[in-house]
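Hello K.,

You asked for the raw outputs rather than the summary table, so here they are, unedited. I folded two proteins back to back in the same session to keep the settings identical. This is the first:
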Amino acid sequence: MTYRRADTKTPTTAKKMKKILLIILVLTSLTGFNQFAPTSQSNNSLSFQNFLAGVDEFTLPQFLVADQTKFYSQQVAESAAYHWLQNIGFKKTNKANASLCYTATVKLRGIFYSDGLCQDLQLVFTSCNGDSWVFKNNERVELPEYGNLGDDKGVFERLFSGMYGYTKPTFNSYYSYTLKGSEKTNYTEQTLKNYYSSNKIDAIEGIYELSFANKESPKYRLGLIKNGDDYNLVYLSGAENYVDWKEGDMKAKLTPTSTSGLYKTKWSMGDKTDKDAFAGFDGTTMKIIMGDRDPDLYIKMYPSSTDKIHSNSGVTASGTGFAVNSMGYIITNYHVIEDATEINIRGIKGDFNKLFTAKVVVSDKSNDLALLKISDVDFKGLGGIPYAISFKNAGVGNDVYALGYPLRASMGDEVKLTNGIISANSGFEGSLNQYQISVPVQPGNSGGPLINLAGNIVGVVNAKHLGTENVSYAIKGSFLSNLIESSGETISLPASNLLTGKTLSQQVQLVKKFVYIIEVQ
């Protein structure tokens, strides 16, 4: 690489130097530019030599400005520092470590000018707990405008050796620091499973795993267990810095808010610093919402529907359904009501405070469909249904939209509209009973209607692809015909379509009155 100064005109005096860069280099651990809080552990009094023995690596810095904007002296100092750290015995790494404390944070500071002059160099070594050792050199260094890179790097390396002239001791984890302690519990994955299987548990209790859609995050596996009015979220496995995390460490404590299914928490990050967050639950998922970063989605892995573990009380799952007959017949997905001991419908005639009980009339597991009927004695009918149901296959490229109740814990009970197109006439792994659609859906959308712009229901939303964005699936409307016919009941489907010719907004205002929340226990 050829190094050039940002300004080739050498100022005659220091007063004419207009550009000064104060802090130039940060070599830090994978956690970024975080500062760790000091602890009261006894090894805070380690000598610098012993601290160096307890670290093994440093990481390649990620600079905030492009290289060409830096002064020549700054570029040379950065390169020299990088080379010198390796020469004294550090390893470089861009990978996660077994412990964050095995990696040193090294800062190179100085005052750099546009004419090749620099002074007041500092080397700052910082432990993962925030203890620092500072070495200084006040020599004034002036590099030629177009110097020899090797010689100029040697100037800086001699300065660094003058600040700290020893070879790094051989790595010995005995001298390594540890991150601040998190609260310990006696839980393991097996003891939690034993508890779940021998007790009636709350709807949200269970073991969760971070969705594989979050490819840049550790594959955390966490266990949730009730503790009085609160919940404890316990680390089980998956941390990249696995020496810092032990099975049973507390990951977070969840405190209820005034919104059902939404909890406030202090979330313990990978470096065991705490951040304010919210945890939202919706059926079989847990979503962690933390500031401006994208939410983390955790999938409930245990208990599954086949484990036959029943909840103590409350809603165990929530989905969407839509009316196909004014007498209370409602379509949803089979997986929404599978193994339900109680089914309730919320949102009849716009009233989300009143629940109506329902029963399964007929189900089709292979096509993920179920036909329900409101059985509540207080039920008085739904009124005229404005849309039609199409049993014909819709064409690829047709505009469609979905209505449903996704992620109610964090998004509320208002019906949500998403739209897109039919992308393919086959679904997941080529399934012929599904459409692939570009309509964004989330947990809770399952069982909702897929509607074309002519006002016909052409499918039933039933899944999303976790491995990519905006790829979802819907059961084709043609499979509804067999389901309804197999019920053995006389069900009059909507005779006319009142949505034809209306705008999307006008259609939604009419359709949403017949799209309901399905709650199961």
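The second followed immediately with the same parameters:
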Amino acid sequence: MTAMTMIEPMNLLGNSTEAAEKIFWWQKKSVYQIYPKSFLDTTGSGTGDLRGVIQKLDYIKSLGVGAIWLTPIYVSPMVDNGYDIADYTAIDPRFGTLEDFDELIAEAKARGIKIVMDLVYNHTSDKHPWFLESKSSRDNPKADWYIWRDGEKNSAPTNWRAIFGGSAWQWCEERQQFYLHTFATAQPDLNWENPDVRRALYDAANFWIKRGVGGFRIDAIVYIKKPAEFVDGVADSDGTCSVHNMTANTPGILDFLREFKREVFDGHDIFTVAEANSVKPEELPDWVGERGVFNMLFEFSHVNVMFPHGEVWHYAELFKLSDFKQALTASQVATRESWYPIYFENHDKPRSVNIFFPHGSDKILAAKALAMILFTLRGTPFIYQGEELGFANAAFKSIDDYDDISSRGQYDIARADGLSDKQAMRFVHKFSRDNARTPMQWNSSANAGFTTGKPWLPVHDDFKTCNAESEARDKNSVLNFYRTLSAFRNGSDVLIRGEYEELYHDNEELFIFTRTLGDKKIITAVNFTTHDVSLPAKIFDGARKIFGNYSDEKNYFRATEAMIYEL
């Protein structure tokens, strides 16, 4: 046994205000995110589809969720796996039909589950009819539906670098102008200053509300407002600057979003959660809650603590646990008068067991430890497909094996920045979005039961042991741990309504916090190290242990150990 560390407690927060009395359906249960392309293929095409989601609704129900968030299933050329939309009100045939979607809504409703759609409103596909018309001339009816600027063909209007790499400007021969694309070249940015654009987007969202959806996740919303003047930014070593630094969260964006709320969200029994990777915790009250525009907001501070220099290829192998805790606590404090979406994984992030615990940590213990945090923080837990099975990152051999446009672009930037192929691939292995997009592992048969054809992305090589069927039979599996924790959280007023308080903030080994409602208290404690750590017994005086990721109990915390106690 390694030497153990004694720690002393500290109250970081002090008292918070009473939790709001009114509780909505989307606060009472968790949300399960599905990446339909990788969930279940019922046709042998190698790509998942809506009928596959329908087929697995009972599995999803077993996790105690109240909503399913679908990443985009609209008509798309799939340059960015559906986030390049060519028709906002039609289902892409590779996923099914509108009739399939209506059946999904009905079957999910019969199980007490609502369907949440993904809205991608910063940009469209360059194959969208709106863009095809806009680029055709400078005087057509949709000429200013996108963001166009004059310039010399070989000299972009500014030095902005797109998020997926390369210039954020693309030359268009038809108009003899550049158009702006925050992401891929095939994803031109919409011009939100044009009221006709906004009306068309609101109409599309209302189309889905009329079909019975239970809410929306809104993608990349912080980029919709552009600055009044387009100027060069402070250049990096390659002479460019990130478009994010120049356009994210531009003043005036909330005016657009308040109109969006009035025209679409108000008056409907839905919830909204927006992706906002530049909104600071102290700004959250303007974005969520009584005076905000959304019910919840995904912000990125806790999942970006390993990027101290901004560029994802210059990541910190070891980050301070106190920074991770501070990020979570700041968001908990900022939303105590509103609500928070709790997450560690999504379709754009790597698998959490590879990120938040040091190398050599037991992956099953780590998955269960993160689950305990996920279900006991204040807010709505978001589970990403496979997270409940303890999925780990994949590691394809070559950059050519990766489908993710972002990984390929960032690999090229990293190489240009002086990293070797081995160094750049190390980054890709750790952070590629394809880590979250490998096919769902249903059983130990060929292709993990995902498809009878060739899967669009390789199945992880651990599917023989890490799959839903085998974990369902194992009472000690990650899957059954999730099911038990979810049921506990759904039935606990303390976890739904209780106040949050972090303890031992400066400690770099343990994350400990409490949830309190009246005279009831729940304590969550996690050891983020690979060694033993002691803890004063008084912290658990009079408490009863109700969950742990070890089967037995010691008077100290073992490596990657996590426990939940109840007073």
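The domain at 26-124+195-232+248-490 is CATH 3.20.20.80 (TIM Barrel).

Happy to rerun anything if the numbers look odd on your end.

Regards,
P.
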